[in-house]
Amino acid sequence: MVVETIDLAVAETITAFRENPKSRWIIGFSGGKDSTALLKVIYAAYLSCETKPTKIDVIYCDTGVENPILDRYVKNLFSSLNREFQRERVSFETHLLKAPVSDRFFVKVIGRGYPTPTNKFRWCTNKLRIGPVSNFIGSAAEADAIVCLGLRRNESIQRDRSLSNNGNHIWQEQTEAGNKYRLFLPILDFSVEDVWEAICEMSSPASINANELAELYKGASGECPIVRPLEPTPCGSGRFGCWTCTVVRQDKSSLGLIRAGFSELIPFYDFRSWLLQIRNDPDRRWPQRRNGATGPGPLTLSARKEIYSKLQKLERETGTTLLEAEEVQEIERLWKLDEGSEPIRC
User: Fold this and answer.
1) Domain total for the chain?
2) Which of 287, 306, 307 has its CA nearest to residue 297?
3) What distances in angstroms separate CA 195 from CA 67, 228, 232, 257, 312, one per listed residue?
4) The dihedral sign for the CA sequence 67, 68, 73, 77
5) Would residue 116 count as lying in a domain?
6) How many Cα neighbours within 13 Å face the side chain of 202?
7) Do 21 and 139 share a domain, yes or no?
8) What string of H, E and C letters represents the secondary structure of the chain?
9) Contact 95, 316 (CB under 8 A)
């Protein structure tokens, strides 16, 4: 059944190519298992189809705060994929998308004083992910954009509800930020076993190292990438996220990777834990909001400078660049706007 499911997805993609040869095809790629299986299915269909799209864009949204291990993996993979695409003379092209400087995570937190995200104030997704992707799609929408995503049924109740609301089919109409486009979901009916089978058994693109990805998942959540059809349920499903995420109480994927030997994540994990601890400290927040309403407001300037100092220390400790020069410049500009206007705590 696993092979039949994969073959069906490839066949449906070939049909989609034949019926939409002039459309602008866009593949959403996160580096995780589902988007990897998606890329392999679409690539296999492309190689087998005589009527090929003139261009297929593979996009990765670089939030600036992705899990450092996965982020490094994806960026190295994109470099390898670019060389492979050029060598094989295929119409695939990779793109790293990024939010405008003013919308980036640490510019919002350190510069503007945004408290780090929670479920009730989850400002990060729109700013760091949806916005950049919507802008890219918007530039392609006039050319009849088709966006391919690695969405699957039964991942979560919320995901199934969203799919049901949009027709619950591999083709869906979508409107976002005024842009109309079509969603194509060829692995919608894949199980976790199907996903790993596609990753491990489909040979192209050759740049994708199934073992490397499997090790990341095994470390993050103990997920087993081996297909074991005799088991009543598949292995667990791991997820990666931003290393700064304070929406969840505990960053289980980072903790799992640390326990699996990725000790370079420890300083990032400690910094994130500290952010979670101080985000609601009343002494680090304005006593009112920017609109004058009563209630915890932005982080104080001293708190923002405290976070900035610790972030600089983290950069030195890990040998990574977490703030680009243009972000530092924007942060300093925003500080000047708040100097002298910060509310006095009674």
Assistant:
1) 2
2) 287
3) 22, 13, 17, 21, 39
4) positive
5) yes
6) 26
7) yes
8) CHHHHHHHHHHHHHHHHHHCCCCEEEEECCCCHHHHHHHHHHHHHHHHCCCCCCCEEEEEECCCCECHHHHHHHHHHHHHHHHHHHHHCCCEEEEEECCCHHHCHHHHHHHHCCCCCCCCCCCHHHHHHHHHHHHHHHHHHCCCEEEECCCCCCCCHHHHHHHHHCCCCCEEEEEECCEEEEEECCCCCCCHHHHHHHHHHCCCCCCCCHHHHHHHHHHHHCCCCCCCCCCCCCCCCCCCCECCCCCCCCCHHHHHHHHCCCHHHHHHHHHHHHHHHHCCCHHHECCECCCCCECCCCECHHHHHHHHHHHHHHHHHHCCCCCCHHHHHHHHHHHHHHCCCCCCCC
9) no
Which residues sit opposite 27 in a β-bridge? 58, 148
CB 159, CB 284: distance < 8 Å: no
Domain that holds residue 309: 252-338
Residues 6+ apart with CB under 8 A from 154: 160
pTM for this entry:
0.85
Phi, then psi, of 34 in degrees rounded to 5: -65, -45
The label of the residue with tokens 């598949």 reads 234
Q: What are phi and psi of 20, to 5 degrees?
A: -135, 55
The per-residue b/e assignment along 316-339, b for 16 or more CB within 10 angstroms, e otherwise, is eebeeebbeeebbebbeebbeebe
Could you give the dihedral angle defined by the CA atoms of residues 251, 252, 256 and 262, in that order, rounded to the nearest 10 degrees? Answer: -10
Domain stop point among 177, 201, 225: 201
Question: What are the structure tokens assigned to 157, written together?
Answer: 């109740």
User: CA-based Rg of the chain, rounded to a whole angstrom?
Assistant: 22
User: Are 103 and 35 members of one domain?
Assistant: yes
Which of these three, 172, 201, 230, is where a domain ends? 201
**Run means of pLDDT, 10 residues per run, the chain, 346 residues:** 83 94 92 94 95 92 91 94 96 94 96 90 86 86 84 63 56 69 92 93 94 81 39 44 83 83 93 92 90 87 97 96 96 93 74
Tell the residue number behind the tokens 């998942």, with chain if given. Answer: 217
